Amino acid sequence: MNPVRAIGRSTLDLLQTAGAVALFALRGVLALVTPRWFLGQTGRQILAIGYFSLPVVGLTAVFTGAALALNIYTGGGRFNAEQIMPQIVALGITRELGPVLAALMLAGRVSAAIAAEIGAMRATEQIDAMQTLSTDPFRYLIAPRLTAAVITLPVLTLVADIIGVAGGWLVATRTLGFNPTVYVRNTWEFLQNWDVESGLIKAAVFGFIVALMGCYHGFNATGGARGVGRATTHAVVSAAILIFAADYLLTTLFTHR
Amino acid sequence: MNQNAPDIETAKLEWRGVRKRFSGAPVLDGLDLAVAPGRSLVIIGGSGQGKSVTIKIAIGLMQPDAGQVLIDGEEVSHLSAGARRGMFGRFGMLFQGAALFDSLSVWENVAFRLINADGVPRAVARKRAIEALARVRLGANAADLYPGELSGGMQKRVGLARAVVANPEIIIFDEPTTGLDPITADAINQLIVEQVKGLGCTAVSITHDLASARKIGDEIAMLQAGRIVWRGPAAEIDRSGNPYVEQFIQGRAEGPISAAV
């Protein structure tokens, strides 16, 4: 194939997909902000997305906080600045690693599960059946998942912030000789509200991305079991890429605030 | 009024000049078909001839490229999303694989429309679901099972109970006996006849199964290359004189229909 034509075709496909995702997101948001709401479904999704993700997010945060503390201590030691380690750990966790790592864990766990579940429903005509039963799948399936992810990821991020800082504290006080009380006081006095708030805003956006990618790829799955597998992979990969892209954009925005 | 409904004053359900193409290839090529109120029409035809597309367009799951679908003489193929959801309330549908919701129990599947679309309280909906299950010869002990715990025949029965629980005006059956043994298939056919006659509703079925077509249909229509090539009373299908129908019912590879392999 002519390379210019191939590039043109790829660009058109990308734009077409972007348009389809945008329209899907718009329908999802409209279903989210206008009645009728399926609150029972939303509650179940909050449990599935939020509560059951706590262990994986908590473990990721504690190890990341501990490793971050060691790295900053090593780096700071090169110009005799080891003592700023608590502040940098807290800043790194709350503004960046807490929301991003919690979102990536959810992309792996939740986007995949949503895409597989909704994709299987598509393959077995359950979504068609839902429509014939006078129930809008965007209200029953999509809106509850979007709502649940937007609500729960900031909560998970807050938990990850606390556990991540605790991981740093543990390493600092047990192996690096920091005073436990001083470490906590330095962290507390250094952190500003905005450091935490900006992370939580990021987390809400990432939550929307995680659920949207799972729902979009599952809802549009074609080709039976193979199609469901493909949808699951696409959901995780696209969610991860969009999380990084959104992270950069939001960080730029917050830096110039 | 179209030529496939010569004796119908006002059809309950009518396809008028319906066309649909996929990737440029015509699937429905000016389909004209109508069903009278209270009648059961079975559409037969080979694989890939447009049977599933015909019913998906009728029920509003797919839009035609051209032509109209009418219910009681009213055009319904280009309704808004909200109006279409209202129209779905007039239909019941039994899907080929039953399409039960895995995460819901049997009674919640049957009562899905009552709870989520009609706002019926759960306790009342459960009672009505159990009554509907009894009509398809499933006991109340099946109500709390999940679809994964049911046999294929039981799943079809639950799907049938879900299709009839809200007393629809029109019921669509998509390959109702596919994948079932002959005895279970006959039991499902019998239940379909009972439910359709009991409700006095209009039924449209698509099937490859001629025993099923003869049992549940008042009339049979044959779809070939996106058009109806024969239509007549179910009892006359063996005397149709139509080469397409004769090849189909005799199951011959030789004839005007090319095998889809």
The biggest beta sheet of chain B reads:
6 strands, mixed
Helix and strand run of chain A: HHHHHHHHH
Helix/sheet category of chain A: mainly alpha
Question: Per DSSP, what share of the residues of chain A sits in E-state strands of 2 or more residues?
Answer: under 5%
Q: Ends of chain A: how far apart?
A: 47 Å
Q: Can you tell me the CATH topology of the domain at 1-83 and 216-261 in chain B?
A: Rossmann fold
Portion of residues within helices of chain A: over 70%
Task: Please report the distance between the alpha carbons of the first and last residues of chain B.
Answer: 36 Å
| Biggest sheet record of chain A | none
What is the CATH H-level superfamily of the domain at 1-83 and 216-261 in chain B?
Answer: P-loop containing nucleotide triphosphate hydrolases
Structure notes:
The complex is a heterodimer of chains A (257) and B (261). Chain A has 257 residues and is mostly helical. Chain A has one domain. Chain A has helices at residues 3-33, 39-50, 54-77, 85-123, 126-132, 137-175, 180-190, 193-219, 224-255. In chain A, helix 8 packs antiparallel against helix 9 (224-255). The radius of gyration of chain A is 21 Å and the shape is elongated. Chain B has a 6-stranded mixed β-sheet with strand order 6-7-8-3-9-10, sandwiched between helices. In chain B, strands 2-1-4-5 form a 4-stranded antiparallel β-sheet, with helices on one face. Chain B has a domain at 1-83 and 216-261: Rossmann fold. In chain B, a hairpin with a 2-residue loop joins strand 4 (66-71) and strand 5 (74-75). Chain B is an alpha/beta fold. Chain B has helices spanning 51-59, 81-88, 106-110, 112-116, 122-135, 152-164, 182-199, 210-216, 243-250; strands spanning 13-22, 25-35, 40-44, 66-71, 74-75, 91-94, 170-174, 202-207, 219-224, 227-233. The interface between A and B is medium-sized, with 16 and 25 residues.
